[in-house]
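Quick one:
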Amino acid sequence: MTVAVVVADEQDVGKFGRYLAEILRAEGLADLEIVGLTSPRLHDLTKFATVVVARSRPSREQTDRLRAFAKGGGRLVLVRPSYYLARAFGLAPASTMVAPAYLRPLGTSPIANALPQEAIETHVPADSYAPEALPAEAVEVARLYADVGTPTSFPAIIELPFGDGRVVVFTYDLAQAVALIRQGDPNRVGGRGLGAGEPYRIQDLLTGYADSGCWHLPQADLHAAMLVNAVNQVATLPQPRMWYYPEPAHRSVLVLDSDDDWSASEHFDALLGAVDAHGGKITVYLMSGTSRETVASPEKVAEWRARGHSFGVHHDPSDPSYGGEDPEEVIVDLVRKDLADFDRHYGGVPTTNRNHCLAWKGYVDVPKVYAELGVRMDLNSVGAGPSWLKYLTGSARPMRFVDVDGTVVDCFQQSTQAYDDLAVKGLLSADPRGQASLTRKLMEEKVTRYYSPLSMLSHPVSFFTYSRTYMELCWQAARELGMPIWSAFEWADFVVARDRARISDATCTDGVLRCRVTGRSPAGALTIMLPVASDRVTRATVDTEAVPVTGLDVFGWPSSLIPIRVDHDRASPHEIAVETC
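Output:
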């Protein structure tokens, strides 16, 4: 049994339905199905362990089908249900809203265990429900807040029994909230919010929009974790999902890359040699443009590639050769030209990218052209200036971009939190050990609580002239904390392989949970996570061979991690069996 996501593509309110499914996929639910609100499959939902209903306006007949499904024992997660759908499940809409809403956990519900005991933002309206009119056995999981410190009387998340089934209600559009937290306000497109001058950046969509009092929290990741916890809470069968990394021992990775910025040969040699010494790999984005050329010749790049490092393009739409044209008007054609030039000189299409000075266009114009040309991951979302070492995008986890109309763009957004450039040169020059200590605390938080990667940028020239002490202390800390140091290419290759892996045929009979995992991994391994405490697991096998089980509390949910050895290049099926007591 799997999870269904019911979407209404044809409705204006339903445009983020498929992005809701994308959030669940990014969280590792690799066996979900998308069901159209008007599809005949809505007539029989009994094969699904949980049905997640994205924001929509169901007809009376569709509402009756969802109601009958839950009453007969089905499990539902409703995301900002319509007025009539909410009333069908015994709720009392107050016909008001909190806009934009914050929310904070209440009580000890496992759903909200993902959240700290403080409010997080949504950027979207949340519907108000009369608290005194909640059904008798309903549980308020989280409370709506008007801001980080002002509670309302209205619930943000509600869990309730309904007939023989169970229902969880999110009173806000979680999918749209995640999109806005990660990517910023589309109404700010073309404006400047960061205060850093030219060029226009994605940070201009976020700075002044994202609540700086919440930057210390990965808010988008927390919303996603609550959605998964809601599925875990009500599902008729524990839902296996892909762990975030290849091995159970991996709780985070350090994703390392570099912007050329016309560095000299000795700068490259120093940086790449130090990365080698720490057992890591790095991706370097080479300068484009005609006014100044990179020193990284095809011969040098071939030599560095032989050591395991990788190379892409550092597109520069502000190059003087473009005659002072607006970088937004230059960048799309420039990306096409640069990638063709790169293929001719160095060979191949880069897997990941970051632009010079983080140049951007529109809302998701740049990721769209990357997706068209085969670039799989964008790293332009850097916590610049005051958001240094924080979560400006509310996330450190990779996830595909989404356009304003809800279209999912096949290019992953990966935020970068630590770096060396002019914005932090003073900090890293004056107190490299103190800043490395702060970065280590961020790593420890990731390893013990959030399980997200740390993306780190080191320019060759910066490393050579002022940031070496800081960088090497951070890399040493990563190794001590069990964080592999991967290049951006290596990380993106794994993210894509994990995304393409599938979990199917999940069943539970006589205390044995079974499923099939089909996939490959450049690391030679995948790991599945089962929302079952490890002390309940008596034996786990992969293709009938016993494997170790690692217990871990994941966003408040006791879970078991099960490793699977897979091919590097060819997806193959593996049979998983987990015996529980």
